[in-house]
Design a protein that fits this description.
Length: about 290
């Protein structure tokens, strides 16, 4: 991998940082087209050598980019920091286009491999995280789907997952996905990721509820802490997919926290409070 091209904006790696310092840099990689922009914010009085530091990789929704960190997440984090909460949490947001954060069937883009094998190791080394400190992951909408997929595939790698309005379909097989539950995604989008014609098996092995059912024992033994929620009035109908995942985890006795937020849509004025609830979950479980 090639990390030669960095554009560091905010701080020296060898100094304690002031309140919520940010930096943005790009990583050159052969796994996806073009370089990938990464934005990172560190907590107040951040120290590289602090044993309790933890990293969360937060995945933005479709059509967004790494500016999601400063625009949506940082105002939420600042309220925690003002109370000296989450004071060791490093938050990183990669810009991933509308990739689903997955490896495409045709091999043309490998976003999951990039995140797991290049981005996370690089960030962990950059911020000198202890080997035993597990990475956290989370995201919104498309990012909620991507974070659940990776957490369920590799539960031993993650300490916790927090997903907001994950864009997942309520079925275990692609042929059983109803049109109402995929109308926000065109055939072209599915074909780009899962092959043309769509490879139903490849869809299944990348679908969070199917992965959770297959890997239930591994997820339980890993100690992964799971939080996900959805708006009860989600205009994309994602409440059906989230409830389907909730039922899947219940049937397989996988401990988790699930919320259906009343009077909340997919992208409305409730999101700020819902992001705060997700980070309050991380605080509650000890981060």
């Amino acid at each position: 991998m090639n990390y030669a091209k960095f554009n560091l904006l905010s701080f020296s790696l060898f100094a304690s940082l002031t309140y919520g310092s940010e930096e943005t840099f790009e990583i050159n990689t052969k796994l996806v087209p073009n370089s990938v922009m990464i934005s990172v914010v560190t907590p107040p009085v951040f120290e590289l050598e602090k044993d309790q530091n933890h990293l969360i990789v937060w995945l933005h929704g479709g059509g967004q980019d790494n500016s999601y960190l400063n625009r949506e997440l940082k105002p939420v984090l600042e309220k925690f920091w003002a109370k000296n909460d989450l004071s060791s949490l490093i938050v990183a947001v990669p810009s991933a286009r509308r990739s689903f954060y997955m490896d495409y069937k045709d091999g043309s883009e490998k976003w999951e491999t990039f995140i797991m094998e290049e981005l996370i190791p690089h960030l962990r080394e950059k911020y000198r995280l202890k080997t035993e400190a597990k990475t956290l992951i989370g995201g919104y909408s498309m990012g909620g789907m991507g974070s659940l997929r990776m957490a369920f595939k590799y539960p031993e790698k993650f300490g916790a997952i927090a997903a907001i309005a994950p864009a997942i379909e309520p079925a275990y097989q692609f042929m059983k996905v109803k049109s109402i539950d995929r109308e926000y995604r065109s055939d072209e989008i599915y074909e780009e990721k899962f092959g043309n014609p769509i490879d139903h098996k490849y869809w299944r092995i990348n679908h969070p509820p199917s992965i959770a059912r297959q890997n239930a024992d591994l997820i339980k033994s890993s100690g992964l802490r799971i939080y996900f929620e959805v708006g009860g009035d989600d205009e994309l109908g994602l409440d059906r997919g989230a409830y389907f995942l909730h039922r899947t985890l219940l049937k397989n006795e996988v401990s988790h926290e699930y919320r259906r937020v009343l009077a909340a849509g997919h992208s409305d004025g409730t999101l700020n409070a819902r992001l705060a609830d997700a980070f309050a979950f991380l605080k509650r479980i000890g981060y």
